Amino acid sequence: MTRPILWALGVLAVAAVAGGSMTERFARIGRGPAAAPAQLSAPLSASAAGVVQAAPGSDPSVTLAQDLSGHFRAHPQVDGQVLRMLVDTGATLCVFTREDAGRIGLTVAERDYTARVATANGTVPAARVRVREMRLGGITVRDVEALVLPGGRLETSLLGMSFLRRLRGFEVAAGRMILRG
């Protein structure tokens, strides 16, 4: 019982050593059952991939329900593949499991793990990557900065601020998170 709570509240400090704008990065890693699927408040149309999107010309917003552990989970399309991600406003960057990185076509070699990440379970190497496109409902963000952790080091990929800060805004109230595209 204590381990999942500590894991969910653990802090992941990312010390990325890239150009001037990258300094220490922080992220929390959590666990819990999946939340209800995202819902859109804009007019809807279904895409070929089965992802619900806002109609052209509308201002998309996505509403996520809080899960039983208090987290928000999303299922964005990342470079065309649907991933299960934990929304983490404390994570400066999006962080992918090695398995999810493989699903979206990112090839990470051992020599690419040049950043160091401090977790509740110790320091972990991380590889810096960029994702061409992330879509959540009718919201699309391109050229997203992210990290990949080695296999077995992260249970669920994190949807961090490198995606969220590119939105018009987001808010949390009454067990819901509203993302505005």
From TrEMBL:
SUPFAM superfamilies: Acid proteases (SSF50630)
GO molecular function, one term: aspartic-type endopeptidase activity
Highest taxon in the source lineage: Bacteria
Pfam families in the record: gag-asp_proteas (PF13975)
A Gene Ontology biological process term: proteolysis
Transmembrane segments: none
Classification via CDD domains: retropepsin_like_bacteria
InterPro entries the UniProt entry points to: Aspartic_peptidase_AS, Clan_AA_Asp_peptidase_C, Peptidase_aspartic_dom_sf, Retropepsin-like_bacterial
PROSITE patterns: ASP_PROTEASE
Protein name in the entry: TIGR02281 family clan AA aspartic protease
Species: Methylobacterium frigidaeris
